[in-house]
Structure to design on (108 residues):
């Protein structure tokens, strides 16, 4: 309803390759189908970082291609390394700061 009301022709979905983002992409694609909009109006953005496995990355890319969404990739490793440098955090310490820094970059 929201897409129809706003007359949106594009939707952006973060796609990690996990279950939650997979469902979000499938719902967006289905909404576009119901509205008669082209599936390439759904933009799937993957943002690989240090913890991204080949399996989840490949799942995300293959899913986007399979459903006909536009796939974009924004690597976050360099930005997260800069953040570690800015706050004086050792990249080899895999603690809450390490995990939150990656999540932080994905939400900016």
């Amino acid at each position: 309803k929201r897409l129809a009301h706003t007359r949106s022709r594009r939707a952006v979905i973060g796609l990690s390759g996990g279950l939650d983002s997979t469902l979000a992409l499938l719902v967006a694609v289905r909404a576009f189908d119901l509205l008669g909009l082209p599936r390439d109006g759904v933009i799937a953005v993957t943002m690989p970082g240090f913890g991204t496995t080949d399996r989840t990355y490949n799942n995300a890319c293959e899913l986007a291609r399979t459903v006909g969404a536009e796939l974009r990739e924004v690597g976050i490793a360099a930005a997260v390394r800069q953040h570690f440098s800015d706050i004086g955090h050792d990249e080899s310490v895999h603690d809450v700061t390490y995990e939150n820094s990656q999540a932080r970059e994905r939400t900016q």
Remarks:
- Residues 25 and 100 are 24 Å apart (CA to CA).
- The mean pLDDT is 94.
- The longest strand covers residues 42-46.
